[in-house]
Request: fold
Amino acid sequence: MMNTSWSVAEGNPASHKKFGWDKFTKCVLEVLNDYDKPLVFILWGNHAIEAARGITNPKHLLLKSPHPSPLAGGGFFGTKPFSKTNEFLRSVGRGEIDWKIAEIDNLSTAEDKKLSSITKAKIDKNGHFGKAINVIDLMGVKTLIVLEKNRFLFFNPYTFAEVNEPITLTAKENIKVEQTKMVKIDSGWHILCLMRDESKESKWSYCVAICDLQTGQVNALQKTKAKVCGLGLFEIENETFCFVAYTLNPTLILKFNLSTYKEEARFEIPQSSEVNFHIFQSSNKPMLLVEYLVGEQNQYKLFEAKTKMD
Reply:
């Protein structure tokens, strides 16, 4: 099982897609294409389908389908990749694969197994619930978090009865939540939200806010007319930080401490429409590597991640 990119920065999907992994993946697939025994290639999503265009050996079977992620827009369920794989392997005398997973930590009880199947079925069937964010232990009770427009709803994941009061991020109907990131701060669950106000009369266009799921308190870290072009979430030396990049000239990056909700530092890079963040340790110092787009080329700039404003 492999991805087209073999590494990624936490919280930044496809952030390493231009690191040259495509060349490595292509070489791996070329070797597999020349393998003398029949193989099955299970290709989920456009990236995988495109990467496997070089698989031309007629001995092999290619099974193509949309990605199973809910972000892919559906179409995966019913494609039966596992049963089709075993059917092919049996037909060429290679036996079959036992796809059962004996034990998964997060689904170790009968109730949890029921939770997994019911959650998927209910959300897929009834799209009016909104977008399922996660199932978490909220104050000791398993709770399904669902995003519906500009508010979070809480459901019992076994019965789908609504529990607790919804958390409304803003009273306005024209607010769109563009990104969410789950994060634990001081042992309590929070959601980092990027919101966009689509009304012309608003004093702000983008807002980054942190929502405490236990208290319902919502704190706006930053409201601005500038477009948000990058959002990163990292733990640095046991503290959790959010990095937000705004498309200005130059592009401005703000660093927020999510325990205090305070801005701690500002960094500048050349103007860019797309920014990704990477954290690594160097000589006992956490470093922030900023990857940004200039024209069609990726550029990089390095900062000390623990920098604070005077």
Observations:
- Residues 105-165 form one domain.
- Confidence is low (pLDDT under 50) at residues 103-108.
